# Entry
Amino acid sequence: MCEAYINKPQGFKACGVYAGLKTDPGNSGNSDIYDVALLYSEVPARVAGVYTSNLVKGHSLVRSIDIIKTNKPCRAFVINSKVANSCVGKAGYEDAARIAECAAEKLGVEPDEVLTASTGTIGVRLPVDKICDAMPGLVASLSDDPEAGHKAERAIMTTDTVPKEVMATVSLSSGKEVTISGMAKGSGMISPNLATMIGVFTTDADIDYPVLDKLLRQAVSHSFNRVCVDGDTSVCDMVTIWANGASGVAISEGTEDYDLFAKALTDLATDISRMIAKDGEGATKLLEITVDGAASDKDALLIVSAVAKSPLVKTGFFGEDANFGRIITAAGYSGAMFDPDKIDIDVSGLPVCRDGIMLEFDEDEAAKLLHEEEITIEIRLHEGNSFDRMFTCDFSYDYVKINGSYRT
Amino acid sequence: MCEAYINKPQGFKACGVYAGLKTDPGNSGNSDIYDVALLYSEVPARVAGVYTSNLVKGHSLVRSIDIIKTNKPCRAFVINSKVANSCVGKAGYEDAARIAECAAEKLGVEPDEVLTASTGTIGVRLPVDKICDAMPGLVASLSDDPEAGHKAERAIMTTDTVPKEVMATVSLSSGKEVTISGMAKGSGMISPNLATMIGVFTTDADIDYPVLDKLLRQAVSHSFNRVCVDGDTSVCDMVTIWANGASGVAISEGTEDYDLFAKALTDLATDISRMIAKDGEGATKLLEITVDGAASDKDALLIVSAVAKSPLVKTGFFGEDANFGRIITAAGYSGAMFDPDKIDIDVSGLPVCRDGIMLEFDEDEAAKLLHEEEITIEIRLHEGNSFDRMFTCDFSYDYVKINGSYRT
# Structure
């Protein structure tokens, strides 16, 4: 794959700066710390979004939702890490508005063409002055260079240990090409229906609102909505796609190009979702859980969710302990209906359960499989034709460490 | 409180032995290891039970459910730890039956007067020969001594670090007394609707089947069904109450004595539930979560459950990190409906959230409260009159350690 960065599609610029929100790198010489990202489109871009299902929503997020739902084209996106701008009351909306105004002024656009997102600690006021003070530098460094895009990604990361950037060039039926890029941050408080996660896609394709919205929802439903780190759903999650049409290539529903674009976007969303699960807080392993043969889609989702959220399953894989009874246990309490005497389970291709009976297996072979960094858990119910899949990670000492001292 | 042991009510005997199921203490000289418990009633006892909601149920448990539902009086209860006798197919039922037959023969009772329970690793055959070999010794050591009761409790423990035994003498309106004892094991895979938990109550009161069943269900609903360690519901959980009538005192519904007995049993169940949460695997703190003012009982339960299961909340309290935004976050994604701008939260009496806004607080005061071993989280919604409460514990390095290497 070519190098991926959010400002690769035509007409997009980006950058990230250190505005003093994250802990000062001080004399440690770590110049790689960034905490405010700016994404800019040279021409007005259509934006679609999907958001956290949490009843409590962050103030920066609510402001963006209100703008996106008006279907007014946007020009810029300011995203900060370290402070979530949530649960601080009316002041949180004012803070988000001030940041947008300050960005709009420097960019020469309208405040309601600037979206806002924040991720980090809840219940703390945003240091608006620091962000506004950084704005001239942010705007001045806007660029279509890969390095500038990578800085934007670094600026939205919190406990992420690796950047998450993806890119695809979509060759359309006409022989023309459009580009899609994506970036995201995880990595705790990750649960289906979005979490503390922020995902941004950009494309230079020209796509109308209802189509853009549909494409995003399709892509998210079996990717971002199938990632679980700890089952906690944050108040700030959002995935947006920005389509600025700078390629001059339009994509309409019901065409071959639509299908090509939809597949590319879904593949990118799936890739980045795997990256998020694999980089879950403290994770040492990626677990891919599939259920096949469920009686209904709902049952399939209930089971992959229960297995992906089970602390017993997750700590067992961390310890490389072949305690596979925990998988059937989680399936059993998931709320899905199935005949426990028909269930089959394979772990990374090793049969561990047939007809509800746990099998004996070669302990050496199991130990070898469990030592891998990527593990598949396949569950077959023989009840119907429904399938689902979820990505998660193991549960380690480091998860406890990271989340036992996040604020400090 | 007087010394508590399961064989304290009149007419009950108990004991526990080491049958070689748990790891051999070897030369370490630890003579305190027990793995098979026997409870015996000198006269036939009525038994009522409540069981795991898991679709997958252990074979020893299923056998006991089948007997209890016939309302046939029972005489003995064999409980083993280390092996769950689950997911091994038809052989698992035969194993449970053989253990009951072997106990029945030595006790001179019928096999279907002997209940069975197993807790431990799933998918492994019970070492029936070891248990049957231990049976003569078990029967010979049956006693009403406190020490024998304590051995029975030790024999049902798995990763528990402290025994859980309770006792109450109930003074009835007639001036007569009956005794209730209880013992339980936790401590991981603990979730509402019972978990890898086994609870046993004995009483010398004379109580008819439907009344006994009702008393148990009432006592369990807001105690055992409100304990959460990790949200995993095991396949072997059961709580039973044995009433042998040896005191000669009958208790009927609709009497003052019924209310006195019901209150005593509920209090004991609550006490033992707190013990289970506090001794959750790796736990360093007991968390008592209450919701008041919910619009419905369902909403109240959804919120206490979500907060009690949140790995972010639980690791935060382990780290004594005053990251209280995670509590409102969990409430928000619980599925309950409430106005996020009306929620109030106190942690151990310290106001941390009012009207949905996180408050500033004295960090030193918070640090002091968070350092305590018992912490209360009070959530008030101002939506209605429903209340609920759940006991849980924090999530520590040791939880991960215990469950990353349980089988080995």
